Amino acid sequence: MSMRTRLILVLLISLAAYTVTLADVAYGVQALAALILCGLLPGALLVDLAVGRSAAPPTRAERIVLSVGMGYAALVLGMLLLSYLPGPLQTWQVYTGYGLLAAALLALIWRRDRVRDYPPGRVIGDGIEADFPARPASTRTVAAVALVIVLGSLLRLGNAGYAEFHGDEARAVLRAAATIQGYEDVLFLHKKGPAEILVPAAEFALAGRVTEATARLPFALAGITALLAVYLLGRRMFGPLAGWAAAMLLAMDGYAVAFARIVQYQSVVILTTALVVLILYRLLRRPQAVGGYLSLAAALAATGLLAHYEAVYVFVPGAFLLAMLLRRYATLRDDLVRAILSAGALGAALTALFYAPYVRHPQFSATFTYLVQRRVGGEGLPYNNLADFFDRTTLYNSTYYVLFLIGLAVLTLAAAYRRGAGRGWGNVAIAALIVGMALAVWRPAWLTVAGIDLTFVVFLIAIGLAWALPSQSVEERTLWLWFGVAFLITLFLLEKPRTHVYVFFTPWALIAGMALERAWLALRQRANPYVAQVAGVAASAGLIGIFGAYTFWYFVYTDVEILRTWQENRPAGYWTTYDVPDNRALFGFPLANGWKAAGRLMADGAIADKYATNEVELWAPYWYTRGAWRCEDRAEWFFRIANPQPDP
User: Fold this and answer.
1) Fewer Cβ close by (within 10 Å): the C or N end of the chain?
2) What residues have CB less than 8 Å from 287, skipping those under 6 apart?
3) Rounded (5°) CA angle 136-137-143
4) Tens-digit pLDDT profile for residues 268-319
5) pTM for this structure?
């Protein structure tokens, strides 16, 4: 694309976005225009500047996911800098800030195109994909990926505006409003990164208000884009079926769906971490445009950390892939080290834009205490959260989905043992794995020695052995390290992991995709190809129907609130290990308690604005009643909710 064409296109998109945000149109359209103006447009320009004209430009699909990912980087970091301006944040300041950013990026792209003439470049080193970056996708592949995106979008966007904001969501949008109003330290009062505040703040600044659907839209789009990123990563690592299966499993995963339907950080973490691993693995296969790609990875990692601290897990597979990069291309080590240090400095600087002033704020000590006491805990290490994990996960997902993932992971471990240790010792390792897993599930007391629960040792050895076996490929080691560290820390070193277990579901889905790819190849070798294809399609359709229907009933269907009326309306045919779901820390389920109606009646003067309620959290009532007086002794109205949610 010529510079003139690029300039015209940017101007047209910017003008259209400006016009829509100012026009009297549907609010959802305004919100989407704000996201394009503050996110996607600068994100696409950043990707173009970094690697668009390099010797190894991204493929079309890679350019899409990287542009969206960098769009969130631009949105979060840009709004963060604008929030530091003194006084209330004015609409014209947001327009000007992002307009100047687009102009600066265009100027840098223009300068780059004038002074550089990129040669075709040569691929360096061994082990490079013969068809890298990729052959054009077939019609069947495009249709398969489209199915993932359509299903993932339906589950994330369907009836997204039905549920009222729950406590954490209401707190985020209230603090977004406070950011616009000029409360300078509101971001530092949060106990996590500022991304979930700054994203709706951009909508507030440009459109003047948010609704449940529009506030959740950016997080849903991040969750949908993550599916394509996971597909690309799985395809690069193991093959097209592995990528498709991993993306499809993640598309139906209840945690991923729930968090894409609320104003919270998780979808941004899922997207940015998947993109960081995708970039680093790409460099391992083709070490070209290293500085540009590492800069993108650093910005994405910083964005993940600005969403939540648990994005730090991406540094585990990231460090491993960088180590493999340095080992594989020893002749390029000096250049690679310089590029890594430069990108690391960039990522640290971007992260410090928030965390440097945050650690000096008085609230930081309270946040640190909260994390240590409420999440990590102080006594009883190591913990054993397997039972809580299984019960909670089989509420967010069908029990069959969870057992399917567990079964594929165990089979993959067994295959790795047989391949790496030989038939004899491999069978011994498999038997030990089965016995250890059985004890961990049915007789955990037998694994307690001197009052210390040693269940974690079973999983540490099982996963560590799979990682250490000499027969394991770099791809397998990457996934077991990514999954294993997050799994072990979350379930055995955190006192209350609860829904934070979502951090290891992306590598878990990729492990499952790897297993299914290998099973499919083995089936094709042993059976008639046509029969194998029919069997594969039928099995896929059946599993999608079983897993996807469960997720639909719980998160999209709103004629009846399934979770609230679980004992009467739970979907038939889905077995559970519990009689009644645990009500702790349930987020993302479509629940409405009537706060929106109460707030409207108060605004119209139909009822008094002095009330009491059994709602534990303050944030949702405060948002919907616009700060009405919540009191016990002078209340004229009492609002009772029958909600199986909060208790965080």
Assistant:
1) N
2) 124, 125, 325, 329, 332, 336
3) 155
4) 999 999 999 999 999 999 999 999 999 999 999 999 999 999 999 999 999 9
5) 0.94
